[in-house]
Write a structure and sequence with these properties.
It is a single chain. It is built from seven helices and eleven strands. Strand 10 (228-232) and strand 11 (237-241) form a beta hairpin. The chain is α/β, with parallel strands linked by helices. It has a single domain (5-241), classed as Metallo-dependent phosphatases (Purple Acid Phosphatase, chain A, domain 2, 4-Layer Sandwich). Helix content is 37%, strand content 21%. It binds manganese (II) ion. Residues 46-47, 85-87, 121, 123, 203 line the site of manganese (II) ion.
Amino acid sequence: MKTPVYFISDIHLKLSLDKKEKERREMLYRLFDKIMETGGTCFFVGDLFDFYFEYPDVIPKAYADFYLKAMSLRRKGVDLHFLVGNHDYWTGEFMEHEIMDMVYHTDTQIKINDKKFYLTHGDGLLSWDHGYRLLKKVIRSNTFIRPFSWLHPTISYKIARFISRSGHYHTHSEDFNKDVRIELKQAAKKHFDNGFDYMISGHYHLGEMFTINEGKLAVLGDWFFRPSYAVYDGEDLNMILWEKDE
Ligand SMILES: [Mn+2]
C-alpha cells in the first residue's frame, strides 16, 4: 500500500446540501488537496456517507461533488480504499470499480512495510450491543437488500433521510465514552497480543489515540465535532486534528 496512508472515518456526507454541509465538504476537500500533494493512500474507515445504497442504474446526486473529487485524487495517483460502515454498507459496482480502488465489507488486516494493522469500523463491537448485532445481520442479508432495492429511489432515500434526521450526531455522554474506551482497549490488547502493531476504529467519534503495551489504538473522530485523521507515514502512526481553516 502506498504511504503515507491517511485513515479517515465518520464523515457522514449528507443527502441534503445545505450551507453547513457545503462548508463541511470544503473543509474535507482542503484535506484532500493536501493528500494530493503528498500522494499515498486515503483509507476511509466507514460512514463516509450518511446513507449509501447503490442501485444498478442510479447514483445519488447529493454525492456528485465527492465523486469528482475522488476521481481527481485517483488521477493524481492517490489510492482510495473504503471499509464500509453501518451507514454505507450497501455499495455496488459503481463504488467498488469506478470510485474506489478497493472496498471491504468486513474487518480487515493489512500489512504496510513491517507494521500489521487491524482495521474495523467498530459497530457492534461493544459487549452489550446484542440487539444491534442482530439488526446488523438482518439489514445486510439478501432477504432485506433485495426487496429494499425494488423500492423507487425517491422512496428509499426519503426513508433514509428520515432515519438520518432522527439524529445520530449528538455527542455521547462522558460515562458512555468511558465504557467505550475500556472495551476498545480490551479489543485492541487482544490484537496486539496476536502480533498486530496498530488497531484503527471509527464509529465512536472520539478522535483519540491510545498506546497499549507496544501497540497503538486510534479511535478516529467524526467530521462534525472533531475533524481528525490518523496518518501512517511508513514508520509510525499519529492522530492529527484538522483545523477548520487549515
Ligand atoms: Mn458508524
